[in-house]
Design brief:
Length: 386
């Protein structure tokens, strides 16, 4: 089966979406399918690797996003899709690519939209008008595609609210070998903290919707309470200068974007607690990677992360310092074991199997096959969040 995938907001320095696209592509290829991913970039390229074929088309930078690009040239993309002749279309975007759902329907090609972000959350700043706009755009999205795939019940809620009947739910996964407690590094810890200090880590994009300032505020509050803590902020983004100004004079270390996934795993495994303060996260791969490293996570109770983290951390509405203290009150071995155990409930093979089920595909299905679900699928849960 040839699965053509489309995504916006993907670049070499992006995080969760890029990780998910690669892991799913590698899984599709390993299962015997053909995976073709189309993303925007500064120039055209066409390469193949373990995740299949990756085609980059020129796309403009979206102002204020720190370099993210989008695909906007419909005719060029439509011609490419016609040449590729997909058996299934998978679209990880609901902005400039919604039209591809109709393109697929006109050609009898089953299409699924993967909801990687919360439109209701992104527009919540506009109040009731934002909610109404989100409902309108979400209604257009769910009508445009045969199925809408959400990774958590929280992510599905904005579609449930408008009565969308074509929802399926499949959680994402984590590389349990790469992200492992054995990655903890005494040398790395010594770089940032003394043996007696609490090492906190914020790992993620430094942008408004991620609310990274909450992590700095938590560090300041903890130290005011007498907790000898330090914070490492790993990531980059448009808020970095503001955060550095906010953190001036406090025990906060900023790193550049960490491209080496092994280095990310080492940092997460070395931390005592990881902070994930974003209130509109629909899944939170970085938090799950921390759990896999045996490190508990303090998350925003407003997001989907409580579904993912379960009892392997703490969910708070605003007081992240209190959440850290609650986690630290547990014995270290106990909290680290709970984190790792929680992460083992999620895996990329299980996620890939769930996505392939949505596509009506199984291992060994060849290009041109017509097995599986067609148009008009009803709401279902392919794989529930543990």
């Amino acid at each position: 089966m040839r699965i053509v995938r489309l995504a916006n907001f993907v670049m070499p320095r992006s995080g969760g979406l890029r990780t998910a696209l690669r892991a799913l592509g590698e899984g599709y290829v390993a299962a015997g399918h053909e995976s073709i991913l189309i993303v925007p970039g500064d120039r055209h390229s066409d390469v193949s690797d373990a995740q299949g074929r990756v085609i980059t088309l020129p796309g403009p930078v979206v102002p204020g996003t720190g370099g993210y690009r989008v695909l906007i040239h419909r005719r060029r993309l439509a011609r490419l899709l016609d040449r590729l002749q997909p058996d299934r279309l998978e679209v990880s975007d609901r902005f400039t690519l919604r039209w591809t759902g109709r393109w697929a329907r006109d050609r009898g090609i089953p299409a699924v939209m993967v909801s990687h972000e919360s439109l209701a959350g992104l527009l919540s700043f506009a109040g009731p008008a934002g909610a109404a706009c989100a409902d309108l755009l979400n209604a257009r999205s769910h009508r445009a595609y045969d199925q809408v795939l959400c990774t958590t019940a929280w992510a599905a809620a904005e579609f449930d609210r408008i009565g969308a009947g074509n929802l399926v739910r499949v959680p994402l996964g984590v590389d349990l070998d790469l992200f492992h407690p054995s990655r903890a590094s005494a040398a790395l810890r010594a770089r940032y903290a003394t043996p007696d200090q609490v090492l906190l880590v914020h790992c993620g994009r430094l942008s408004t919707e991620k609310r990274p300032e909450r992590s700095v505020e938590a560090l300041v509050a903890l130290r005011a309470k007498g907790v000898d803590a330090v914070l490492v902020v790993a990531g980059d983004g448009p808020l970095r200068p503001r955060l550095q100004e906010q953190a001036a004079g406090h025990a906060v270390h900023f790193t550049e974007f960490v491209a080496d996934r092994t280095a990310v795993a080492a940092l997460l495994a070395t931390a005592d607690v990881v902070l994930a303060p974003g209130p509109i996260e629909t899944f939170g791969l970085a938090a799950l990677e921390a759990l896999a490293c045996g490190t508990p996570v303090v998350v925003s109770a407003e997001s989907a992360l409580p579904e993912v983290v379960g009892d392997a951390g703490a969910a708070v509405h605003s007081d992240f310092a209190d959440g850290v203290q609650r986690v630290l009150a547990l014995p270290s071995d106990e909290r680290r074991r709970a984190a790792r155990d929680r992460a083992t409930r999620f895996s990329w093979p299980a996620a890939v199997a769930g996505f392939l089920t949505v596509h009506g595909a199984t291992a060994g299905t060849v290009h041109g096959a017509t097995a599986g679900a067609g148009h008009g699928a009803t709401a279902s849960v392919v794989a529930g969040v543990p």
